[in-house]
Amino acid sequence: MSAVIPVIAEWMARQRWYQAKGAEPALSVVASLDGGVPGVRVTVFLLLDEAPAEPLLYQVPVVFRPTELPESRNALIGEVDGRFLYDGPHDPAYVGLLVRTIADGGRLEGSGAQAVGEPAIDPGTPRSSRVFSGEQSNTSIVVDVEGGPLPQLIAKVFRLVHHGENPDVTLQSGISAAGSDRVPRSFGVLTGSWPDPGRAEGVAVGHLAAVQEFLAGSEDAWRVALQAAAAGEDFSERARALGEAVAEVHETLASVFPTVRTTQAEIDAAVAVMRSRLTTATTEAPQLAAHRAAIDAVYARAARASWPALQRIHGDLHLGQVLWSDRRGWILIDFEGEPLRTMAERTRPDMALRDVAGMLRSFDYVAGSLGQDGGDTAAVGSWATTGRRAFSAGYGTRSGIDLDAHRDVLDAFELDKAVYETLYEARNRPAWVGIPLAAVERLVGSSTA
């Protein structure tokens, strides 16, 4: 085993989901799970990486094969002692084991860990699979099945694992179980336990993987909106329907999970986070300095305003987290929350207006990205304004919430998002920094008008 981990470490450093970019992983085995698959060895490693300032726990499923698997050549991790190591999500042996363990309520055991399948719907028998490309933090697998209610499913493998609930599992499952079709149906999850000396009981328990409905023929909302804006198409009806869909999901979440009255202490804490982010952003993006006093004034008004109750929310809502289905309309996906927030922050009640603000910013980014590509700035800007208004109207109609009555709070959340975007663009795409800066100028201007 000692020869295997360095090979995995070298491979991990090149993966999109590896968090400590540019660093060399410093891995140790916390635990492993073994699956009985004829002819090959399947081991799911839980590996602690101490390269970043805060150690992270990764899940790395590995299939050990005596011969090469030509169709999975791109997923080859390396060769050790005459055995070929493959990344599990790309290997049918692991995918079949994962889906059937969940579907059968089965159990995987190994060195210091175990995992139990928790089925919701029998998915049928896996026949073939392929991995989605481009994901940043997890690995999703499209699985073709026979004998189940659907011909295809999505198996999502969580690369970063932690103690406690994964909101992508609990929120989507809760919404689905409530009868809503605004999220993919849940077919079940795999829950693991492993040693954790930092916990009083010495054991951590968390989600390792989930199986859910694959929405064949659906389109990414970002692409749908981008194409409509580029063609100058009226998007107002779809934007209104999207607002209604988001409000419906918020309504379902509030009925399934607890809501909490917002106290002044919680308001003050939220505004303090906004101000802290502004301080950091102003340091790295000096373009914000001229607006700092005006931004702080918006935050001050929000701190004095009346806030709606806190509830569970999506947490990282934008057009890229929504699918369009001709049969079902808008469908929300990926409920893990904002990646830069801690898991404790992502799993506690929050302000639904945070989701609204995120979607409003996404309309601006459609227009901004087209402007970057030489599009008619005035035309796409008008398209975004119309889309934002229609989305807000749809949300207000379905939720019964007068967004104008909460304008001070909503402006603060949207401004906080634009400040974050300015910092991101300054660090990664300086040529794009004008997109969020324009939003900052608009928001501080409208708030003082």
UniProtKB/TrEMBL annotation:
Please state every residue range assigned to the domain named Maltokinase N-terminal cap: 11-91
User: Which reactions does this protein catalyse?
Assistant: D-maltose + ATP = alpha-maltose 1-phosphate + ADP + H(+)
Keyword Zinc-finger included in the entry's annotation: no
Entries under Pfam families matching the protein? APH, Mak_N_cap
Q: Which InterPro entries match?
A: Aminoglycoside_PTrfase, Kinase-like_dom_sf, Mak_N_cap
This protein's pathway reads: Glycan biosynthesis; glycogen biosynthesis
Write down the top EC class of this protein.
transferase
The EC designation for this entry is 2.7.1.175
Organism's domain of life?
Bacteria
Q: Which SUPFAM superfamilies match?
A: Protein kinase-like (PK-like)
Q: Which GO terms describe its molecular function?
A: ATP binding; kinase activity
* GO process annotations (BP): glycogen biosynthetic process
Q: Does the keyword Nucleotide-binding apply?
A: yes
Question: Any idea what this protein is called?
Answer: Maltokinase
Gene3D superfamilies associated with the record: 3.90.1200.10
Family stated for the protein in its record: Belongs to the aminoglycoside phosphotransferase family.
Which keywords, in A-to-Z order, does the entry hold?
ATP-binding, Carbohydrate metabolism, Glycogen biosynthesis, Glycogen metabolism, Kinase, Nucleotide-binding, Transferase
Kindly list any coiled-coil regions of this protein. none
Task: Please describe the quaternary structure of this protein.
Answer: Monomer.
Domain Aminoglycoside phosphotransferase stretches: 207-362
Record region (Disordered): 113-133
